[in-house]
Amino acid sequence: MKHYELMLIITPDHEENEAEALIENVKGIIEQEATLIHTDVWGKRRLAYPIRKRTEGYYVVYVFECAPGFIAQISQALRVIEAILRHMIVLFEEDIEKLKEDPPETETTVVPELNTVEDTPESVELEQPDEDITLIEEISESDEDSTEPEEVSQESDEEATVSE
């Protein structure tokens, strides 16, 4: 028997108790023909990209032991559950004994959303540039549009090397 890791992303549209019921439902599906070793609920997180027009989801990770033939059955059962945005099953190659001895806490934690209006300070102070910095040349929009190279005088080059 091999060890596998299943990660689910559940839609955030459900209440917390509905999400927990779905987590238990998936646990029951796994326990039909597999030995569940560990369940880790990561909680609500922001998705890397939108999935079915959603930007957040509940992440849940299961580690279990089963025969390779059961993986197709689990995958098929998870595809028909509409509340599951995505799932992925991979071989679990880490030390399983370490996971059994010291499992991380499985509490659901809600990560606060960043970049909200409440998090933004009312006034922002800008840093003043160092006084040692001098403006060498200012480029205007008309300069960017021209295709002719600018003539540079030797005097300005000599002044630049002297000031350095």
Summed up, what is this model?
The protein has 164 residues and is α+β, with helices and mostly antiparallel strands.
Question: What is the oligomeric state here?
Answer: single chain
Q: What is the CA-based Rg, rounded?
A: 29 Å
Helix content range: 25-40%
Q: How is the main sheet built?
A: 4 strands, antiparallel
How does this structure look, described?
The chain is an alpha+beta fold and 164 residues long. It has a domain at 2-101: Alpha-Beta Plaits (2-Layer Sandwich). Helices cover 29% and strands 29% of the residues. The protein contains five helices and four strands. The protein has helices at 16-31, 70-79, 96-101, 141-145, 154-163; strands spanning 2-10, 35-51, 54-66, 84-91. Strands 2-3-1-4 form a four-stranded antiparallel β-sheet. Strand 2 (35-51) and strand 3 (54-66) form a beta hairpin. The longest helix has 16 residues, at 16-31. It is elongated, with a radius of gyration of 29 Å. The model has no long low-confidence stretch (mean pLDDT 76).
Layout of SSEs?
Blueprint: E1 2-10, H1 16-31, E2 35-51, E3 54-66, H2 70-79, E4 84-91, H3 96-101, H4 141-145, H5 154-163
Antiparallel strand pairs: 1-3, 1-4, 2-3
